[in-house]
Amino acid sequence: MSDKFFFKGRKTPKPKHESYGYNTKRAAKPGTEALPLQLIVADEARKLEVAAIVAEHQLFANIEVNADVAEDIVELEGLLNKPKTTTFEKKPNRNEPCVCGSGQKFKKCCGK
């Protein structure tokens, strides 16, 4: 026979951690102490420039000087040049005064 007739009590389901606010798939942000940026520069002068930029933005990086390899600071540039969210001005409603200053409602002036 099935459990339906003989089971006394309540079966508790496996807890869903996502619903309780626990982030089970947490990843470290690049540029922090846990995941520093890996940068390669050509000479010591350039290393000092890049180190100043990293310190200015309060990031962490491992800067390696290697003249044989091309400069690789793509991770740093990616963090500093994040795309900005575009925002638009709110379009006036039909019954609001017109933005051109005529004193008429928007629907009778510029909203034709």
From TrEMBL:
Residues 1-23 are annotated as: Disordered. Gene3D superfamilies: 3.10.450.50. Pfam families: SEC-C. This is SEC-C metal-binding domain-containing protein. It comes from Shewanella oncorhynchi. The lineage of its organism: Bacteria, Pseudomonadati, Pseudomonadota, Gammaproteobacteria, Alteromonadales.
